[in-house]
Amino acid sequence: MQERRNAPTGVIIHCSDSSYGDVELFRQWHLDNGWDDIGYNWVITNGVFKNRSRYKKERDGLLQVGRDIRYLGAHAKGYNESHLGICLTGRWHFTWAQFATLFHQLRRIKEEYMPDLRVDDILGHYEVDTKGKTCPNIDMDSFRGYMKGIL
């Protein structure tokens, strides 16, 4: 893995495009694609870890550590050096617990890593990928509007 040369300046929000999963499953998918590790720095689970398994409330909104922030991510081409990546498990629907964890994690990132982080520095994957992606399948303008009261 290549070490990060500069401090990150932003965050990109992703979704897993699967209705289930956790950091270990996504790491395996990324390794199977030939990557050297999971591409995201964090994963926020939705309570369903395996295909066809039951929802578990205690696993909903769980923050899991992915790729160490000392190393370049592999989540958004052209932005891996400058942005950290957070993946919400899910495709079109996300839980309140996931959003609560996401808001908390963004505040933590600002406090610990990026004191100058502004809401405009938080992007959805579709905003930086021109290949027709919709990830994270949330309206990022509305999300940033809500974040102005939190960040």
Summarize the structure.
With 151 residues, this protein is an alpha/beta fold. The protein contains three helices and five strands, in the order E-H-E-E-E-H-E-H.
Strand order across the largest sheet: 3-2-4-1-5
> Which stretches of 5+ consecutive residues score pLDDT under 50?
none
Our count of domains comes out at 1
Range of strand content: 15-25%
Please tell me the overall pLDDT: 91
Could you characterize the architecture of this molecule?
The protein is 23% helix and 17% strand. The protein is of the alpha/beta class. The chain contains three helices and five strands, in the order E-H-E-E-E-H-E-H. Strands 3-2-4-1-5 form a five-stranded mixed beta sheet, with helices on one face. The protein starts with 9 loop residues before the first strand and ends with a helix.
Give a topology summary:
Layout (H helix, E strand, L loop, with lengths): L9 E6 L7 H10 L9 E5 L13 E6 L17 E6 L7 H17 L9 E3 L15 H8 L4
Parallel strand pairs: 1-4, 1-5, 2-4
Antiparallel strand pairs: 2-3
Observed structural traits:
alpha/beta, 3 helices, Lysozyme-like, globular
